[in-house]
Amino acid sequence: MRDDAGGLGTTDTTGIDQINLVQVPLVPELRLFLAEDAIVLWARLEAEASRRLPAPYWASAWVGGQALARYVLDRPAVVAGRKVLDLASGSGIVAIAAAMAGASTVIANDIDPYAIAVISANARVNNVTVESLLGDCLDGDGGDADVVLAGDVLYDQSIAARVHPFLDRAAARGAYVLVGDPDRGHLPSGRQHLMASYRVATVGAPEDAQIRQTNVFLMTATA
To answer: Which domain holds residue 82?
Structure first.
C-alpha cells in the first residue's frame, strides 16, 4: 500500500498496492486512500490471507457517506464542540469531516480491522484526530455520543434490520442522528426528515455508478 503523505506504511501488504490517495467529488477538502478497483482489491486481500474476508467497504467513497460529510462540513454547528460517533465508518470520510468541522471528540466505528487502519491513515493525511472503535456496537445506543452519524449503512435489508433499532435507541436517548443515504430502499418509514440532497459525480463504489442523487436525513425515534 502506498505511504504518500504519512499514509499507510504501517499496514504495508502486497495485496493492497493499488490504493491511491485521491480527492472525492462532493468533499474535495478531503483526501482519502481509496481503491482503484475494490473488487480486484478484495480478491488480492483474500489471496494474501488465504481465507474469506468481508468486502472492503472502506476502500470506496460511498455516495451516502459523501453526502453526510458534505452536510457536516457545510453546517459545522451540527457537530462543533460535541462528541460524535460515526457508525460503520469505512474509509472514515464522515468522521474526518466531523473532526474538521470542530467536533470535540470523534469516534469512528467499524467491524473490519482494515477499515480501522485506513481510518487512522486518512485522519493523519487530513491533519485531524479521530479515535477508532473496532467491533459491532449495534446492540447499544451510541453511548454518550451527542451526535450519531451513519453514512450509507442501510445497504441491504439484513443490516438495515439491525441498524434501525440502533438508530432508534440513539435518537430516543437524545442523540442527534443523521443518516446519509441515496435511497437504497431500506430507510425506516415515517421516521426520517430530509435535510439536504446532492447531485452525484460518482467516483466511488461500482454499485453507485447509476446513482445521480444522494440525501441526508434526520432520524427521529419511534413514539
So the answer is: 60-219
Instruction: Let me know how long the chain is.
Output: 223
Structural domain includes residue 160: yes
pLDDT, tens digit (0-9, with 9 covering 90-100), for 87-116: 999 999 999 999 999 999 999 999 999 999
Task: Evaluate whether 155 touches 126 at the Cβ level (below 8 Å).
Answer: no
Helices 93-100 and 113-125 cross at an angle (nearest 10°) of: 30
Q: Which of the four pLDDT bands, split at 50, 70 and 90, describes residue 16? A: low
Instruction: Please name the amino acid found at residue 110.
Output: D
Is residue 12 a contact partner of residue 2, using CB atoms and an 8 Å limit? no
Helix, strand or coil for residue 173? coil
28-78 tens-digit pLDDT: 999 999 987 777 887 888 888 889 887 788 988 899 999 999 999 999 999
Q: Would residue 25 count as lying in a domain?
A: no
| Residue 208 belongs to some domain of the structure | yes
CA-to-CA dists, residue 15 to 122, 123, 128, 182, 205, angstroms: 19, 22, 27, 31, 19
* Structural domain includes residue 100: yes
The pTM assigned to this predicted structure is 0.87
Instruction: Check whether 210 has a pLDDT greater than 70.
Output: no
CATH (domain of 182): 3.40.50.150
Residue type, 61: A
